[in-house]
Amino acid sequence: MFATTHVLASVVISQHTPSPWWAFFISLLSHYLLDLVPHGDKPIDEWIKRGSYFKRAITVFFTDIILITIFFFTLSQKMAFPSAPIFAAAIIGGMLPDVLWVIYELYKRYFEQFRVFRYPMVKSQLERILNHHRKIHNYIDSLVNKKITPSGLGVAIQILYLGLFIVLALYPF
Predict the structure, then answer these.
(1) In terms of DSSP H, where are the helices of 15-115?
(2) Going residue by residue through the chain (173 aa), what tens digit of pLDDT does each one get?
């Protein structure tokens, strides 16, 4: 799922939670719940792996950052913001699984060969967390004869989620 979707979900959650701790944990849970829904970004993952991994991953990352910035500045004029600690905790919780995944991928591709990270226990725990994350990503697809959701349908699902989260951010219940 694109980071934009996770961030907008976290914004909505931050508007409805009383403390930073609740905002963090509910946003973290929302990340995994959103990732359960097939979201068709396998072609993007394959595109990243086919070329210069770092350059293509950075391209996808900055595209997400630009979209988040556009949504933030567009919505910030019209929506009610919670306190800064609640808002920040929600965003961190909603993005943490993907941030851990990116850190691990960068380590595995660029730093492991130099033996920079010499804590095998930490590495194995991170791998366990990421394996659960990967299973969540593929869970529903695995129920439907192991077929991957078409990317067009997955992107349409993400756009529907984005629209829902924008409406909920602008008109909190």
Answers:
(1) 20-36, 42-50, 53-76, 84-106
(2) 788 889 999 999 999 999 999 999 999 999 988 888 777 666 777 777 787 777 777 888 888 889 888 888 888 778 777 888 999 999 999 999 888 888 777 777 766 666 655 666 666 777 888 887 777 777 766 665 555 556 677 778 888 888 888 888 888 77
| Structural tokens at position 14 | 């931050």
Assess contact for 43 and 149: CB atoms under 8 A: no
Separation of alpha carbons 87 and 84, rounded Å: 5
Containing 162, the helix (H) or strand (E) segment is helix 151-170
Q: Which residues of 75-103 are buried (b: 16+ CB within 10 A; e: fewer)?
A: beeebeebeeebbbbbbbbbbbbbeeeee
Give the Å distances, CA to CA, from 13 to 41, 102, 153. 24, 24, 26
Of 173, 169, 160, give the one whose Cα is nearest residue 74: 169
CA-derived radius of gyration, the chain: 17
- Give me the domain span that covers residue 32: 3-170
Q: How far apart are CA 149 and CA 151, in angstroms?
A: 6
pTM over 0.90: no
Identify the sign of the CA torsion 160, 163, 166, 170: negative
How many structural domains does the chain have?
1
